[in-house]
Amino acid sequence: MNGILLLGGHSDIGGDLLTRLCAGRPVVLAARRAWTLTEVAERATAAGATEVHTLDFEATDLASHRALVDRAADLTGGLGTAIVAFGILGEQRRAETDEAHAVEIATVDYTAQVSMLTILADTMTRGEIIAFSSIAGWRARRANYVYGSTKAGLDAFCQGLADRLHGTPLRLITARPGFVIGSMTEGMDPAPMSVTPAEVADAVATEITDGKGSTTLWIPRRLRLLAWIMAAVPRPIWRKMPR
After folding, report:
1. What are phi and psi for residue 173, nearest 5 degrees?
2. Residue 9's domain is classified under what CATH number?
3. Where in the sequence is the domain holding 125, given as residue range(s)?
4. Which of 85, 114, 120, 149 stands 20 to 30 A from 105 (CA)?
């Protein structure tokens, strides 16, 4: 049972992490418009994947999640790694007045994640599940509170799930990066302690192969100090903070 499932096949971080883990292993890529995953599949093959399958995946179709995981397990002979890398940033200004968009962000970035993580933890027997939180969830800001609130909820869920899995052959690793410079944030000015998808992938891959059992990874590590400083900023000042 050494198959890899990448949920969110177009994810910069997910794709980079996949290439660091897939040598000698079968892979399933799941995303909207699965037929557009050719480049990702070619990267995985070049990195040593023994076979690459693609599946259509719609995160908001919660009823389809378990069947997709079961299919991925069948295709690979059993999953040993699941990378939950789907998500959207959304548009904060639009979400402030468009309730449908606010709910879309919440569904993709929180509800669908909870659904998929629950199914993976229920069906996988060993290996690792990787989820992606964010510094945005540490303390919600006026400039991105809709997205930030989903990451706060997801982070809390992951901490509890990681504790439930503690002592079993299956573990959940939650990556907590700072601002990630990638396709999702294209055109935005990088924030302090920004990282690239490759840096996030390196940190997670190192924890999987050489780590000491950490369940939460601050990326970069010094981001933890900034987070504690953020928590101490008085509310009147914090509400004026930019993204």
Report:
1. -110, 125
2. 3.40.50.720
3. 3-238
4. 120
Rounded Cα distance between 79 and 81, Å, is 6
Structural domain includes residue 65: yes
* Beta-carbon contacts of residue 186 (< 8 Å; ≥ 6 apart): none
Per annotation, catalytic residue among 132, 147, 179, 218 = 147
Query: In terms of Cα–Cα distance, which of 92, 78, 96 is closest to 26?
Result: 78
SS3 176: strand
Contact between 113 and 84 under an 8 Å Cβ cutoff? The reply is yes
Residue 84 placed within a domain? yes
Under 8 Å between Cβ of 104 and 88: yes
Q: Is 145 a catalytic residue?
A: no
What's the total number of domains in the chain?
A: 1
User: Each residue of 13-66: pLDDT tens digit?
Assistant: 999 999 999 999 999 999 999 999 999 999 999 999 999 999 999 999 999 999
237: confidence class by pLDDT, cuts 50, 70, 90:
confident
Please check whether residue 214 is in contact with residue 117, taking contact to mean a CB–CB distance below 8 angstroms: no
State residue 232's pLDDT score: 65
In the predicted structure, residue 228 carries a pLDDT above the cut 70: yes
Is 41 within a domain? yes
Decide: 160 and 215 in contact? Cβ < 8 Å.
Answer: no
55 located within any domain: yes
**Using CA atoms, how far apart are residues 54 and 195, in angstroms rounded to an integer?**
28
Nearest in space to 172 (alpha carbons), one of 141, 133, 221: 133
